[in-house]
Amino acid sequence: MKKNLLSLPVHYQLQTLKVALADGTLLPVTVIGNGKPVMMLHAYGMDAREFLPFILPLTGKYAFYLPHLRGFGAAKDIELHQFDFVRQYADDINTVIEQICVTCHIESLPVAAISMGALVMWAYFERFGLSRVSRYLNIDQSPAIHNQLDWQGGLFGKQQQERFEVFHEVVDLTLPYAKLDSFTHLPFALKRRVTDVERSFSLLSVNRPRSKAIVHILTHQQDHKLVFYDHSTWQHKMRCLQAYLALPYDFRPALEDVTIPVVNLIGGRSKLYDPLWQQKITRMLPNAREVILPRSGHAVPVDEPIGFYKVLKAFLRE
To answer: Which residues form a coiled coil (predicted)?
Structure first.
């Protein structure tokens, strides 16, 4: 029998696992690799498959489980049923982790999470404890979103109030159109405002000039293209922003109970979470060490792809 030269080795083949959640929803989980199970959680607005360039070299040793959080990626058509989307995501991820552990006959597995996905993991630890997670890679994410008298390490740091006012404005402008079927039906000026705010947020997430150039290219919408732009996740993003602004997300009280090994990966020039305050997180955790990539912004895999790969590889070997 002739071998098909175009067929990929088993550990390079993508599969989609559908996990039944508590409300009956089937959550898509991308699975790739052949080896020890690992779970990775994506950021706000990200597709879980964007991790693929970093994990493909490791798929001979590890099986990566990449859940798509409701409203994003392969789960973009799955709606939230709770306003508190972070805790809903934590509930969903608990179900995913349980199924992986039962199916693979393991007690626990390593988890790596970035940005919003990492916030979900802080909520997960608070709600479900540590028994199913063997170690954790936290990628540029504070456990507390809002600045407080005793905490100035929230989202955007010293510029939080200014940035949050912009978010409040764009959320308020879009509320009357929340039930529209398509982004294309919004007034043009509002579409421009929404995409400009998203673009500004993406640019704040990166630090390296090449990263900023990529973001400029990928996010700029010329007028004639914006008219027909089908932004399929805009309503979900606005709903998440509402929760970020309204709810007092603060999982610091749970940190002292996170006794598993933690690697706190920090973008040394992150504009979303002040690196100095992120280092305080390392000291608040009982069993943590930190890695700082000095030229990276918040979006570590984009700014420092090689550095991120090396940290992930070392984390999995521990």
So the answer is: none
Cα separation, 167 vs 235, in Å, equals 14
Q: What is the DSSP letter of 90?
A: H
CA distances from 18 to 29, 63, 71, 74 (A): 6, 16, 15, 11
The pLDDT assigned to 41 comes to 98
pLDDT of residue 187: 95
Whether the pLDDT of residue 3 is over 50: the answer is: no
Q: Give the mean pLDDT of 44-48.
A: 94
Q: What is the pLDDT of residue 7?
A: 62
Instruction: Please tell me the pTM assigned to this model.
Output: 0.94
The CATH architecture that domain 10-147+250-317 belongs to is: 3-Layer(aba) Sandwich (3.40)
Would you give the distance in Å from CA 64 to the centre of its chain?
15
pLDDT, residue 2, reads: 42
The residue ranges of DSSP E strands in the chain, in sequence order, are: 15-20, 26-33, 36-41, 62-67, 109-114, 133-139, 262-267, 288-293
Q: Strand, helix or coil at 250?
A: strand
Short-list 109, 105, 112, 113, CA closest to 134:
109
Q: Please state the domain extents for the chain.
A: 10-147+250-317, 157-246
Give me the numbers of helices (H) and strands (E) for the chain, helices first please.
Answer: 11, 8
